[in-house]
Here is the input.
Amino acid sequence: MPEIKVMLIYEILGRPPEHIKQALEKFTDDFNDKKGVKLLSKKVHEPKSLEKTKENPNTKNLFTTFAEVELELENLDMLFTIVLNTLPANIEILSPSSLSMNNFDLSQILSELTIKLHKFDEVAKVLAMEKSNLINELNHLKQSQPQLNISTNVKPKEKESDDKEEIKKESKENKTENKEPKKKDK
Here is the structure.
């Protein structure tokens, strides 16, 4: 199989601007140390201040930048390895114009992809469980010690049947309130 030339784009967000540019420079320079990878060119752009938007009001003093990296890779397996391990924002295969591979190589690449996805899934599930446990502990703390000012911005999850019962109860209360005659103030 001929060598593969690719253009990858990597983005970074953070502060201060000098730090994110330096981190991206170091990250792209590390391609020189990888076996089967040849760094052909790179361009790290100057950081820009992130604009404050309605959706993201907490962007004060945050900066973003990106790097364009052109690599020459030994084979398609190396391309998949780099993509899975470095997660570029964009990938463009510059050459060759067409690629072919046998079933064994494709199976091997897909197996690596599956393993990586399972690891991500495992981490996501563990983090979701830990978040849920922390929220439950904080809510318990808030109930047992109301003098503490703890904000999670997350309402505790209740059982679906409890939610339905609460809705029915509120609905009955509203109907009862509507039936009672209003008292006039004198």
